[in-house]
Amino acid sequence: MALPRLRTVVLVSGAALLTRRALKRRIARSPLWPLPALPEPVSGHSKRRATAVRKLLITGRTEVADGVVQLRLEGPGLPPWSPGAHLDLVLPSGLVRQYSLCGDPADTGAYTVATRLVADGRGGSREVHEQLQEGLEVEVRGPRNRFPLTEAPGYVFVVGGIGITPVLPMVRALAASGAEWRLLYGGRSRASMPFLEEIEKLGADGDRVTVVAQDEAGHPDVAGALADVAPGTAVYCCGPEPLMAAATAALPGGCTLHLERFSAATGGMAGSDEGSEAFDVELRRSGRTVPVAAGQSVLAAVRAELPHVAYSCEQGFCGTCQQRVLEGEIDHRDELLTDDERGDSMLICVSRCRGGRLVLDL
Question: Which three-class secondary structure string do you get for the chain?
Fold first, then answer.
């Protein structure tokens, strides 16, 4: 009796081994059965950002100007960051908003962000001001940096209001290094301008800082501030769209301009209805195909099937909704992606399809 039982065990084990090998070959050959045999997905995992979500504790909350709240977020093992970087804050409602890091990169145990309350905004700033208190945890992604401080013989900063947040760590670093820099800082009033006292102290040596409060002196003279800038100077601008447009128009030849937007540029491609024909989007990993109507965004169509897909600005400038494109011709309408990234990815909140079909790595 023992011999037949042994023979049965051997046969069953051999059959199981052959079955496993056959399944591995089948999976390797097919992109859809029983699980997609594609490279590791990059959709929602843009090269421009760290995507790990971590929970940080709010250990400090300070009003640093009228309507501006600063939060200190502490946690272990925080990734390093450099001036110009920002975080994605996942708010209690599920909204995702981007806030520039305005603390000290050497403080490895905490991140510091500041946000102005925008009464007529889309709700993110109000949620920060009303719900994020000391002792609560908040989810964050990042940091990531699309506004880095580059090497240059000199620097000029043109800033409006809350636009000082990404620039403050840059100015601190340049002041400490002895580099050549100047700052034009405008705002509605001195009371509304965050970090004004520190900025004036940093620029006290050499009259590097010009402060223009609108209720005292009107709008800042951007053209005048840039008129005598030497070739090779890096010009950084962050603030309202009219300020950025003025800096763009007044930029001297031979200088480089770096812009950080908190909203989409006026008159840009984002959100344009031109050429907005209907098309289909295949979600390769999910095995579904969704129609995108002429007046509908890819993001809206995809989230009807996959509600977990992350997004934030819905205007093509934050990068949260970046997805990998496997097939199809993209009609890019964003203001963010590099030429290299445009080859195989898109921001699905604004960009569309040139043709009848796109395939996303979702």
Answer: CHHHHHHHHHHHHHHHHHHHHHHHHHHHHCCCCCCCCCCCCCCCCCCCCCCCEEEEEEEEEEEEECCEEEEEEECCCCCCCCCCCEEEEECCCCCEEEEEECCCCCCCCEEEEEEECCCCCCCHHHHHHHHCCCCCEEEEEEEECCCCCCCCCCEEEEEEHHHHHHHHHHHHHHHHHCCCEEEEEEECCHHHCCCHHHHHHHCCCCCCEEEEEHHHHCCCCHHHHHCCCCCCCEEEEECCHHHHHHHHHHCCCCCEEEEECCCCCCCCCCCCCCCCCCEEEEECCCCEEEEECCCCCHHHHHHHHCCCCCCCCCCCCCCCCEEEEEECCEECCCCCCCHHHHCCEEECCCCEECCCEEEECC
207 confidence band (pLDDT: 50, 70, 90): confident
Residues 96, 99, 103, CA angle at the centre, nearest 5°? 140
Q: Which residues does residue 135 pair with via DSSP β-bridges, in sequence order? A: none
The pLDDT, as a whole number, for residue 18 is 56
pLDDT of residue 317: 72
Residue pLDDT, tens place only, 6-54? 565 445 555 555 555 654 554 444 443 333 334 444 444 444 444 578 9
pLDDT above 90 coverage of the chain, percent: 64
pLDDT score recorded for residue 34: 37
